[in-house]
Amino acid sequence: MRALGVDLGSVRIGLAVSDRSGTLASPHSVLTRGRRRSDDHAAIARIVGEEEIEIVVVGLPVNMDGSEGPAARAARDEGTAIATVVGVPLVFSDERRTTVAAEGSLRERGVHGSRRRQSVDKVAAAFILQGWLDSRDRGASGT
User: Fold this and answer.
1) Are 110 and 75 contacting, i.e. CB atoms less than 8 angstroms apart?
2) Which residue in 36, 39, 52, 127 could disulfide with 98, CB within 3.0 to 4.6 Å?
3) How confident is the model over 30-88, as pLDDT tens digits?
4) Domain range for 109
């Protein structure tokens, strides 16, 4: 199953894709937010088609205690809007600490400054997607 991971940010959207077997996530690209959310969603839908994506996994920024605050509600609202244009199922996956993990991974590889800022969103999306792929293998599903 080919999946697309999405890390929704206020300025950028990080994207990651899985391999065709649905076991390994890799960073794909970063979309800079446009003036309209509908343009952002159309760009995601194009990638879904180009990459032959079968499911979209949107990061859900839950609080450390597992509760959902305003950021999680905003992600759910936007994910619901994205689902109307991508033409494939969409699920949400806990994204706690993925940006921190992405930053650490890039730092360990010696990526600094503007190169790290340009990459962190797609690497975070890969962490979100990999977490979902791994949980699916353990028998869990998206939220």
Assistant:
1) no
2) 127
3) 999 999 999 999 999 999 999 999 999 999 998 888 888 899 999 999 999 999 999 99
4) 3-137
Is residue 5 classed as helix, strand or coil in its secondary structure? Answer: strand
CA dist list (Å): 107 to 8, 24, 99 = 22, 21, 12
Q: What total number of domains does the chain contain?
A: 1
Query: For residue 142, is it within any domain?
Result: no
Hey, what are 6's tokens?
């999405």
Pairing relation of β-strands 12-18 and 25-32? Answer: antiparallel
Say how many Å lie between the first and final Cα of the chain, rounded: 18
CA distance 18 to 24: 5
Token reading at 11: 């300025």
Residue 143 within a domain: no
Kindly state whether residue 97 falls inside one of the protein's structural domains: yes
